[in-house]
């Protein structure tokens, strides 16, 4: 099949979780014999941090303004089997209009930010990437979150068919790696700074660091403010490209996953970092949220922490206990949460989805 995708970014992994997911998914789709054309608006903050220039067995189309590629985009959609527009695509409304106004390609909306979308609806605020007619014109709506979110897409946005397409990891990129001295730590955390994660990060990372000054704690990420509550035993490395993630994860005794607050409140919404760390064979401790046991077995594959005491207890586990847990988590990740698994799930959802024959418009 031929896929045409309109997304936030695949070319830059800076400050977003979309790029890594799309890279793994597009690579896996290509391995299955499918082709992908990915449209991305060429904005300065991603151009300055671009770490991918082309797609293997696919095409990356960067553009400055929608008007310059509108006709070409329509042609690509009409020559595709599947056309997808995603949340936070800067030209989502234009792309949706082009997708909905044709009848050849299966019309798909993929919300990679489901909790944020639903929070907009709860606040009665406009969702910038969804038009006034909601999602009723799409043949298939995919959600990064499962659980009750799927019903909300139907009841509040008019989705006719909604299904989860969870996060995933490319095990060719995220795999066990030799530790590096500069990333050595008792507990590490990799993630872009987010205000809504800060309370959990303080309980599961900063307070444990204060309680155990002889241990080494390490944060990797971007956009951390000057007033972040650093302590003398918390070290920092700036944004790391995906290629450096395995060494980061594998250099600490234990690595922490902290889920964005809307994702944790929604439940059934695992972060990409969770799968990445597990695929690298790193022992993982995660914050708690509904549905986490759908993806990993708490206490067997990963540790689930609800407070500072849980982190301190996890740090007291033996190396043998942590190694055995990490091995089980990696095995489960490769079997259930790889990009190849998700690509096959996507293809199955597409093949099972009935298609509306009449073209629609955003104003319909």
Whole-number mean pLDDT: 95
Which strand order spans the largest sheet, edge to edge or round the barrel? 3-2-1-4-5-6-7
Radius of gyration: 21 Å
Strand fraction: 15-25%
Oligomer class: single chain
Description:
36% of the residues lie in helices and 18% in strands. It is an alpha/beta fold. Helix 4 links the parallel strand 4 and strand 5 (106-111). The longest helix is centred in the C-terminal third of the chain and has 18 residues, at 319-336. The protein is globular, with a radius of gyration of 21 Å.
Task: Provide a compact summary of the structure.
By secondary structure, the protein is α/β, with parallel strands linked by helices.
Keywords:
single chain; 364 residues; alpha/beta; seven-stranded parallel beta sheet; six-stranded parallel beta sheet; 13 helices; globular
